[in-house]
Amino acid sequence: MIPAERQKHILTLLNQQNIVSINSLMEMLNVSHMTIRRDIQALEKKGAVISVSGGVQLQQRLAVEPTHTAKSLLFQREKEKIGHYAAERIPENSTIYLDAGTTTLEIARHIAEREDLLIITNDFAVADFLISQGKGELIHTGGKINKLNRSAVGELAAQFLRNISIDLAFVSTSSWSLKGLTTPDESKLAVKRAILSSSRHKTLVSDSSKYGKLATFWICELTAFDRLITDAQLPDNIQKTIKNMDIELVLAG
Questions:
Q1: Cut 0.85: pTM above it
Q2: How far apart are CA 148 and CA 145, in angstroms?
Q3: How far is Cα 155 from Cα 150, in angstroms, rounded to an integer?
Q4: pLDDT at 58 over 90
Q5: What is the pLDDT of residue 47?
Q6: How many Å apart are CA 142 and CA 144, to the nearest integer?
Q7: Which of 52, 143, 177, 244 is the most exposed place for a label (fewest CB within 10 A)?
Q8: Which of 161, 188, 168 is nearest to 229 (CA)?
């Protein structure tokens, strides 16, 4: 069976079961572990599947952005560790950007006592926390308000960010893969792209549950980032691929 036939068979199985183990595929197709891995990598590059621990599953489509409240209840331990690691690596006297999200809120919690930072954010939860608890200088982007996500979005926020020089941006996402970042919310596109163009160093902060999800609107390639901070649940083969992309990969924990 040639690779194209095997890959078509894998997709057929996944449409029936959603997730299949590598051992099962080896037995069904009578091929080696490495052959299955190569087939999965080929399908992954096409955006059809994602690797999971010990197997593969269909790419998950994200139809809507979860609310701030919903996100705050998920993967709290992983987000706290990511926030702690990220905060410890911020150089003195930096101008930083904290993107909208519950992971960046954890970064804010860990830098509240620092007086040397200028912190820019489009997130109202982050701003509210730093107004009451933070000692550094704080700027909010302003802009159209997304009430469910408690953030500013759209062209007004993006225009502000294009006029600021930022040392280090911490960018969040609801969906990413080896190809890059996507969003189901078109109003976030301008802000995400503006911050990427205005920052000298860019770090993606995201727990591994966001990996493998795909949404409608394309933001950027994964290589737009210098560093990715996530957790150890990210599949081993994905970790290896990211490192080969010259992106610093950090597993917080």
A1: no
A2: 9
A3: 17
A4: no
A5: 72
A6: 7
A7: 244
A8: 168
